[in-house]
Amino acid sequence: MSIYLLATLSITYLLLLFLAAYASERGILPQRLVQNPIIHSLSLGVYASAWTFYGAFGMAAETGFSYLVSYLGATATFILAPLILIPLLRITRSYQLSSVADLFAFRFRSAFIGSLITLFILIASMPLLAIQIQAFVESVHVIDSSVPRHKIAAAFCLIIALFSILYGARHASLRSRHDGLVVAIALESIVKLTAILTLTLFAFIWIHGGFSGLSEWLSQHPEALQNMKQPPESGSWRTLFIVFFAAAFITPHMFHLLFGENATEKSLTLSMIIMPVFLLIMALCVPILLWASQRLGTLGHPDFILLGIGNQLNQQWFGAITFIGGLSAASGITIVATVALASMMQNHLLLPIIRLPDSIRMYKWLLWIRRSLILFVMLGSYTAYVYLDHHYELSYLGLITFIGFVQFLPGVLATLYWQRASRIGFLSGLIAGAAFWFFTILLPVLLPDASLITRDLLDKWYLFALLSLLINTLTMILVSFVVPADAEEQDTALSCVLNALPRPSSFSSDHETLEDIAQRLSSRLGKASAEGD
């Protein structure tokens, strides 16, 4: 397959996304379709990034069925939506909060916290975005190695930046919904799922020969099944589960789609069914395709065995479908994360320090600031890709990012369920956990001789991840008891808890007494906390 065909496929696919977004924004598509909860639920399939589409095969080849943890962790998030996602939606909707930085700045009454969170998220997101660029570049290079990698990466970044500007920075208000963006990302999820299913069905029927052929091959090659059944290390598996549980709603792209682009609880309720099914289908495809590559004797890196199968069979259509599926996985998360990061940077880093013009021109300035920030984020992502390229596997780069984001989990749970968490306690815990993550996991990657150091750390990453989370949580709890929340923080904490409660329970009766309210809150806060305020 030539580079010209790949370019044609890429442009055609991205043009299709552009047309879908354009039709949504211009009202060509009916509103009942554009704002349908199913569309929003499908857009959450952006969780399955290039790390999942390609990296799951590398992880399965190395650790067997342990690859399932990335799917199971996210599935748990959506199953537990009534306890986590829906309460967060009520809070963000009530107080017009569109990002993790907004949430913590509001809960702990501190603009400084919003700025600090934004900086931390920006740093943690760079490896994640670099993964998407690396996956796209390598997918092109596996098929046609004639074009320099840096040119492919630059073209990808420019196109993604253009799309992000056109459909992620059309409104000055950070709370305006981007229907075109949501529809485009939902379409990407459908394309991604269709691609992996098509490849799996072909492998199952024509390579394996159906159930009988696959069973016969597995009986003749017991090591293939045995490798998949290798027992996972309990410590690493549990840590990964927590990491992916948090990644499904704390990462900037997921938080943006879950809460920034969502206005109804119905969408999240529907996602409790759609997302687990979506993830289950993708997870079940992995071993069938992995065994197909082993059956064919496919050479190359395990992350890109799908492209290797296409080359081995000399089937251009197989490689083309794989390429489009990988492009949809990489572009979707990059677009949404870039838009989310630009909005956070504008709100928490630039607006507090710059002086805007008069109100008539202010909105144009805001739009151009956000568009410039989108370009800045893509430039940072490209720089991270150039620095990290060819040094680490997709799976390890992904873990670096996800372990960074899990540092926000204690703060989110405290916002929902622990009214006594204080500003100083949250800050102390976050700084302690993030510092441990930086020095034990991220810094070794950035050092010049990192290739030597990280080999020794790979076996200990789960210990460092668990310790960082433990240090974060314990520090927040201990410092919150030593330096309790002030009156303003306590009022906000109570507001968060009240808004997280179901509306019918909290507000349906016109004759509720204070005792009734305290009784309802006691199940969530405990009797002492409920009656204390």
UniProtKB/TrEMBL annotation:
One of its GO terms (biological process) is sodium ion transport. One of its GO terms (cellular component) is plasma membrane. Keywords: Cell membrane, Ion transport, Membrane, Sodium, Sodium transport, Symport, Transmembrane, Transmembrane helix, Transport. It catalyses: L-proline(in) + Na(+)(in) = L-proline(out) + Na(+)(out). It is found in: Cell membrane. Gene3D superfamilies: Sodium/glucose cotransporter. It is a multi-pass membrane protein. Its main location: membrane. Belongs to the sodium:solute symporter (SSF) (TC 2.A.21) family. PANTHER family: SODIUM/PROLINE SYMPORTER-RELATED, SODIUM_PROLINE SYMPORTER. This is Na+/panthothenate symporter. It comes from Nitrincola nitratireducens.
